[in-house]
Amino acid sequence: MKKKVILLLGRSGSGKGTQADLLEENFDFDFHVVTGDFFREEAKEDTYIGKKVKHILEEGELAPPWISSFFWERFLIENIKTGKENIIFDGVARRVEEAYHLDDVLEYFNMNLIPVLIKVTQEEAKRRLLGRGRADDNHEDIKERMDWFETEVSKALNYYRGNDRLIEVDGMGSIEEAHNNVIKTLNLNE
User: Which CATH number, 3.40.630.30, 1.20.58.100, 1.20.140.10, 3.40.50.300, labels domain 5-185?
Assistant: First the structure.
C-alpha cells in the first residue's frame, strides 16, 4: 500500500468507526487517531483540564475546536518519526476550523490528506444508531447529532469539496459491502 493519510467523515451511524477499525486490521496503518479517545483519556486525569473535559463529556457539550486540534496535534508531534506513516483519522476535523488547521499541520509534515465521506441516508443512520442500544442513542440525541452534521460538519465537507479532495463512498448495505467500497475507492490493494 502506498502511503495514505485518510480522514473518515460521515454522519453518526454511517459506520466510519467500523470502517476505520477494519482498515486498521487489514492494512498497514501505523496510527488510528480518534479524537474521542483523547477526550476520554484526558477526562480520567485529576487536573483542571481533565475535570473540564470530563464535564464536557458528561453534559454532552461541544468542546471548543482548539482543544480537539490540540489533542491530535500533540499526538502527531509525539508520534510522527519519519513522515511516511500511514494514518487514519476518525472523528477529526468535523468543523471547518479544524479542517483548515488539520491541513496546515499535515502540510508541515509533508503529508497529503484524503478526506473520505461515508454516505448513508439519515434514515439508515437513525436505524443503525437505534439498533446499537446505547444510552445516548435515543431519538432526541440522535436528532441533535443529525442536525449538527447538517449545520456544522457539512461546512467541513464543503471545504474539502471546494478544493476537489472529498471522496464519497457508498456506506449503505452491509459492513462488508461498505468496506469493499472504501478499499476500491482508495485503491488500497495497490
Answer: 3.40.50.300
